[in-house]
């Protein structure tokens, strides 16, 4: 029983190290030696638990993918909330999650860029069959709904991606970035609703 607990602990230590190294360096630049060093373990032990870098990456990528898209898909599929409530919930919850995981967008998006076929059907399929998509299409059948979905996600994700540049400007050098991002919880629903009301 003790051995099993130790095994679980070692496996989690390896996975946590892999999360850090893969997020920092990406798949191609990461060596199993880097992960072993980060975990404070020898390479043989890492290979005992995870036979290859690919297998370990697949596990971590699935976790990150679910973290990045899983929450938003659940919010967009809520049967009991209005379109406006969905937008507010996405802005609130997604911004909070990204503030706690600022490296997540660049990691997931760079890996999607490197392997688009692996992710494209999963992403577009979930978004295009969501309750949110259905509600948008009913309200604005004259607009390609994908424009609206991409705009919503871009308004949330891009400022987090741009944080290293934004925080170098005079307006944000005093640590105001978090306040700026939290203000977007109110602004994004207003902007999105304005788009919905605008005639093309």
From TrEMBL:
The HTH tetR-type domain, residue ranges: 8-68
Keyword set, alphabetical order: DNA-binding, Membrane, Transcription, Transcription regulation, Transmembrane, Transmembrane helix
Entry's transmembrane regions: 145-166
Keyword Transmembrane helix: yes
Domain of life, source organism: Bacteria
DNA-binding region: 31-50
Stored InterPro entries: Homeodomain-like_sf, HTH-type_TetR-like_transc_reg, HTH_TetR
Pfam families: TetR_N
Protein name in UniProt: TetR/AcrR family transcriptional regulator
Organism of origin: Olivibacter oleidegradans
């Amino acid at each position: 029983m003790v051995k099993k607990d130790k095994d679980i602990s070692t496996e989690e230590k390896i996975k946590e190290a892999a999360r850090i190294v893969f997020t920092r360096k990406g798949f191609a630049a990461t060596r199993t030696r880097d992960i072993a060093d980060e975990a404070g373990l020898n390479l043989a032990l890492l290979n005992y638990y995870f036979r290859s870098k690919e297998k370990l990456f697949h596990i971590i990528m699935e976790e990150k993918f679910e973290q990045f898209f899983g929450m938003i898909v659940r919010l967009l599929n809520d049967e009991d909330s209005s379109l406006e409530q969905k937008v507010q919930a996405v802005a609130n919850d997604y911004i909070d999650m990204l503030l706690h995981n600022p490296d997540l967008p660049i990691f997931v998006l760079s890996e999607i860029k490197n392997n688009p076929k692996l992710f494209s059907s999963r992403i577009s399929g979930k978004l295009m069959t969501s309750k949110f998509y259905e509600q948008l299409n009913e309200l604005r059948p004259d607009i390609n709904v994908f424009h609206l979905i991409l705009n919503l996600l871009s308004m949330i994700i891009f400022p987090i991606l741009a944080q290293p540049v934004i925080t170098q400007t005079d307006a944000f050098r005093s640590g105001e970035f978090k306040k700026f991002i939290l203000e977007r919880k109110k602004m994004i629903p207003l902007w999105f609703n304005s788009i919905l009301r605008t005639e093309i």
